[in-house]
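job 3f2a | input accepted
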Amino acid sequence: MPKFFITNQAIKDDKIEISGNDTNHIKNVLRKKVGETLNLCNTDTTENYLCQITNIEEQKIQCKIIEKIINNTEPKTEVTIFQGLPKADKMELIIQKSVELGACNITPVEMKRCVVKLNEKDKIKKIERWQKISEVASKQCGRSKIPKINQICSIQNICQIIYDYDIVIVAYEEEKENTLKAELENLKKSQKENLNIAIVIGPEGGIDSSEIKLLKEKGAKTVTLGNRILRTETVALNILSIIMYEFENKN
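job 3f2a | predicted structure (251 res):
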């Protein structure tokens, strides 16, 4: 069943009012009728509800909460992706698949080797579009939150917040010794629950050595992902899959 997101503002007692673009989708695409059910998620609390449609109007749809639904789609391990701005529409693919795999936040990063250069007006438009892609991906895979697409930042910005994370992992093709497996094993030994992990990924040309130096000086860990060099749009999916396997799939 498709999921739609609402906020606290839409809820009053056991009633929920849906407005905006979702109204048109429910009415004209799904062709839902009064009496049929919807799966709604409150993004302010991540609570999920099974609701029955009670009234359909031109600009809004009114529902009644039938029951709260237990939803376990959100990972306990929070992963933030710091993605060097790639060319063309690769960022859209990275966001879509990262959301499906469980990323909690995605931050585009301007790096020295980025070919893409955005002015302030373009940045605003890109963030709006990328946030919409995150929302659509969240609906598709049944998540209880919409991962935030943060404002575009720099390597210097990352260095200022490195200590907010349990570990900052940098995928670096010049690293030959330290592996992702080794770093994740060290994290496991800490036996800490609800880990907060950051992953830094370069653009097509990789991360410049001067940027690597800044990150390492602040405590970031460079890792090799193997003998093959992966495309930038593959790296986040590779690392996210491994992290979710190691820390989420325990049953």
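job 3f2a | Helices lie at 21-29, 90-101, 120-141, 155-161, 180-190, 209-217, 232-247.
job 3f2a | closed
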